[in-house]
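Field reference: "sequence" (input) and "structure" (output). Example, Manganese-binding transcriptional regulator MntR:
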Amino acid sequence: MTASTRTVPPATRPASPRPATGATPADCHPSQADHLQRARNAQARILLEDYVELIDGIAGPDGLAGPSAMARQLGVSHASAIKCIARLVRAGLATSLPYKGVALTEAGRAMAERVRRRHRLVVSLLRAVGVPEADAEADAEGIEHHVSDTTLLAFERFLVRRPLAK
């Protein structure tokens, strides 16, 4: 047999530990799929937290916030605000009164207070380590959603022992 007539088996390569482009989470390694699912859940939770915090902050004396005002504040379309309001209602965090606005339920108000408290605590920690006020406020807006309760307790213990930086 000459070299030109010999058949060479196709090259085999070990399976890649990473999924091919377009793979679904089910195709991923279980821990990777878990991480992806947790990331998606976190993004959904962050959106709801931002909305309840905003509603609580802009609601009038009647407890209602208008979807148009919410959309303007968040820089999203009116349709996006309406879609998220529907999610808040399904989650039991808000009630929607047609042509009047959105009001938080007790669970929604509790979530808004929890997010505000986390925000204040993160800002306080950032200020204590010397971050300027404007930067601390901006940075805390993202950090407040991702920091664990364990870490928040550590922040509190640290702040009790160390006064706020000027």
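The longest strand covers residues 94-97.
The chain has two domains: 32-104, 108-161.
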